[in-house]
Amino acid sequence: MKSGSLSYILPCNRLPVQLMSQVRVYTSNGQKKDLGSQDTNGSARGETLHKVETGQDTTNAGQKQSSPKQPIQVKVKPVLKKREYGPKYTQNNFITGVRAINEFCLKSSDLDQLRKIKRRSPHDDTETFTVYLRSDVEAKSLEVWGSPEALARERKRRKEAEIKYRENLFRNQRLLWEYKEFFGNTKPRSSTAAMFFKGPGKVVMVAICINGLNFFFKLLAWVYTGSASMFSEAIHSLADTCNQALLALGISQSARTPDPSHPYGFTNMRYIASLISGVGIFMMGAGLSWYHGIIGLLHPHPVESLLWAYCILAGSLVSEGATLLVAINEIRRSARAKGLSFYQYVVQSRDPSTNVVLLEDAAAVLSVAVAATCMGLTSLTGNPYYDSVGSLGVGTLLGTVSAFLIYTNTEALLGRSIEPEQLQRLTEFLESDPVVRAIHDVKATDMGMSKVRFKAEVDFDGRVVTRSYLEKQDIEQLLQEIQQVKTLEELEAFMLKHGENIVDTLGAEVDRLEKDLKQRNPDVRHVDLEIL
Fold this sequence. Notes:
This protein is mainly alpha-helical.
């Protein structure tokens, strides 16, 4: 008798498998029989592997027979194969009706026969909205247009028509503007015009009227007397009038509604106008005053009677003082509403238009005092150098005001952070919510005019989100669904269904936090919460 066995090790993804060759025993009469064989395929699926060993030693008298070893039990866990998500899978994405009509050149009636799905709305004014499967919309567009090439041609045609429509719209707007210029604008007073009858708009309009009158009378006084200080005062009033007209333009532009090109609105137009105003004061007011003062020092000339100049300066002091009081009262009222002090409100440039009027009128009152003092010294001593020094003093005062305006408005336009106390309150509010585990990278930017943009990365507690979802479900029905799961396909379908619903619940929690932040903090207009 002769026996033999061979052992092989085959490569496998999950575990090594031993392949035992078939063992055959030959008897003395020439007959043979199979003792056992192993199937490698069965072992790869997790079945029990039996290793059979048989042997007889003919040389030994005892003829020892080896006892078989215990079978090895191997359990292989079923693993869901990793799915490759290609274009076919992304066709299950949703698309809104507006995008379906615009992108696929369809009509609203074409969407009536498609499957409609209700989804959670990201907007506060609507709870749900209707979406469509992108694959259904694409199939419908091919049905309507016949081929992708025809659809591409229609898109191109509509794009050209849109460009032509915009050109015609611009031309019509131009013609309408020319018509209004020729026949007059008979439209009723708009809300933008109403802004100039209250608040900062009222302050700016009062300042424009008063400074315009001051410029006219100071210019007459300079022509009559030839005083360098009076010339500086006239230039100062002219600069104030022009700058405040620019502020009025900034106020009217800041009231424009946001559009696709400017989604956050035009609020910063007030800061831009104030910045240009500060540069204008520096160049027009301070520059010309310094120039005239230096010319007076280099080429002095006698000053005529200053009686009319004193009278005009006195009237200017009263008018500028009245405008200054209007600006001070407006700033006090606004600062009290924001819970800030008068100094904090001015330094932080909360209302740039009123700040410009305040500082310009304060500089005007001081410059009137400086000009009157220097003109008085000139009339007493007969020395024209005092008058030129007064012009230099007025220019220095205007330069200081313009530097302050340029600095504060530049800081506002760069996007500075809000006060640390306010940022701490917003952070504590988020962290106190049960659904929030932690927040990171918090930023709160002052966009101007009491508008704040808040951004934070939020680590949500998945257990709380899941409990929030389960509270809205029928637990008994959910348990029945779990008990019916028997295969991997059923398990995948169950997890995909409820996983998508849990993600929608997370989105609803984000919307809730954003809405609560805006309600508790009216200054917060835009909230961006990123999910970690």
